[in-house]
Design goal:
Layout: H1 3-32, E1 36-38, H2 40-49, E2 54-61, H3 69-84, E3 88-93, H4 95-101, E4 120-124, H5 134-148, E5 155-157
């Protein structure tokens, strides 16, 4: 490995960590402001009614979801819709970490309540004032940089902490 490759890998790794942390901060802030829509079907309904309010679409999977054809079809349709409507998209792995960040149970609780579907999460702008935070700008910048490199749906891996 050359020095340029080694330095490039470290910069990329650091950037990914920074964007992962920014995404986690953004999701927590959006949840506090009630600007989060969770679930594939709930997200599709919102995008159909008010696509202009959506500022980020997070599509989350783990290895066991890769063979779920129905989920992959939903993702393809959501990605196409987001591209047509200039909505930033981010694919992430680490559903368990996502559940931790959002304080959601990752398994059914004692009452038999199923956990929320975290495969698709939308961050929306509040109606009264636009959602502005450094984390949103950082994630948006990462998505834009990725599109400039012809990577239309950037990927992040959320690490357990």
């Amino acid at each position: 490995m050359t020095l340029e490759e080694l330095v490039g890998c470290n910069i990329t790794e650091t950037k990914m960590e920074t964007v992962s942390q920014a995404l986690e901060e953004l999701l927590v802030a959006a949840q506090r402001q009630d600007c989060l829509t969770v679930g594939v079907y709930e997200s599709a309904k919102l995008m159909n009614v008010d696509p202009d309010s959506v500022v980020l679409c997070v599509l989350a999977t783990d290895e066991e979801d890769e063979d779920d054809i129905a989920l992959q079809i939903h993702f393809t349709l959501i990605q196409a819709f987001c591209c047509d409507n200039d909505i930033n998209i981010l694919r992430v792995s680490g559903l368990r970490r996502l559940a931790q960040v959002l304080c959601e149970p990752s398994t059914a609780d004692n009452n038999g309540n199923e956990p929320k579907d975290l495969h698709c999460i939308l961050v929306t702008n509040p109606q009264c004032q636009p959602f502005k935070c450094q984390a949103l700008q950082e994630v948006g910048s990462y998505c834009k940089e990725s599109r400039c490199k012809n990577q239309w749906v950037p990927y992040l891996s959320l690490q357990e902490r």
